């Protein structure tokens, strides 16, 4: 009887180990697939596989899909966004050339734009300058009372906080962002459930960002 119990305990331990490995592998596969999807969405938003000086349409695309900006329905920009930059055509008047466009609130779309915001800051700054010119030319209708500026600042701040929390608490989000480090993404499926205080979470997040910076520039 004792031999049977020992064998059952050994088999249970082996099963737990296999289950843990499978969870880590599944988390890594999910993270890899999500990263590929984000990269694909970025290329679709930009209608390009390379990053350079953003065109007016590219700048408008990565901002309009996250911020409440309305392209002028009579402008060529509205048509370009639908034709090449994943915008949705809500209404079109053939006689007047009137095109009402918008971006659907879809998570993959927002994820692709978010990755461009976080990982390519110079591109974001150049895009903001382009959009400012488009607003002055009345090709884009901004919000009233500084709404656009407020949305951009708040979204950027939330992106930074979510990166820190994701690295500190892998269960905070269902899917790790592409900007989280490999170790933090893998940890999500390892069964790790440590709960941290706010200060400890921020410290761990900063350590993660330092590791990523060393790998990137070292």
Overall SS class? mainly alpha
Mean of residue pLDDT values: 74
Major beta sheet, specifics? 2 strands, antiparallel
Number of strands: 4
Order of helices and strands: HHEHEEHHEHHH
Structural shape: globular
Low-confidence stretches: 170-196
What report would you give on this structure?
By secondary structure, this protein is mainly α. The protein has one domain. 64% of the residues lie in helices and 7% in strands. It has eight helices and four strands. The strands form two sheets. It has a two-stranded antiparallel sheet. Helix 1 crosses helix 4. The longest helix has 45 residues, at 2-46.
What are its keywords?
218 residues, two-stranded antiparallel sheet, two-stranded antiparallel ribbon, 64% helix
